[in-house]
Amino acid sequence: MSITRFGSAGGVGTGGQHLPFSSAVEAGGWLYVSGQTPMLDGEVVEGSIIEQSTLAIQKCVDIMRDAGYDMEHVVHVKVILTDARYFQSFNKVFKTFFGEHPPARICAVADLVVDCKVEVDVTCYKAP
């Protein structure tokens, strides 16, 4: 079994710091996308939970598609919200992305190391 790393050069975090992990790793038909926050070029994109959730999920989708996976390949999503009151609004955004192919999911409330409202990661499977 081979392992392929996508974005292994690392991205840019807050304050321009280098992020020392791959954006996704593929092994044996599985694709694990690292947690995505609503950041562009190392800066948090301010906005509501709707706007931040849309960007975080879209970043996951873009990484998946670059790796050759699509929405029907998503089997599990992990979500971290910084406030339980965001749950219903997040679900509305989630449904716009995954309504036709609902994956398994966990959603938790916790502090994030980045000053934003949400972080999302996805796990995909496609038979090799």
In spatial order, strands of the major sheet run 1-2-3-8-6-7
Terminal CA distance: 10 Å
Low-confidence stretches: none
What does the overall shape look like?
globular
- Indicate the CATH architecture: 2-Layer Sandwich
List keywords for this structure.
single chain, 128 residues, globular, RutC-like_sf, YjgF/YER057c/UK114, RidA family protein
What is the structure about, briefly put?
Helix content is 23%, strand content 32%.
Folded structure, characterized:
By secondary structure, the chain is of the alpha+beta class. It has one domain: 2-Layer Sandwich (60s Ribosomal Protein L30, Chain: A). Helix content is 23%, strand content 32%. It is built from two helices and eight strands, in the order βββββαβαββ. The strands form two sheets. A six-stranded mixed sheet has the order 1-2-3-8-6-7. The protein has a two-stranded antiparallel ribbon with strand order 4-5. The protein is globular, with a radius of gyration of 14 Å. This is RidA family protein. Belongs to the RutC family. One of its GO terms (molecular function) is deaminase activity.
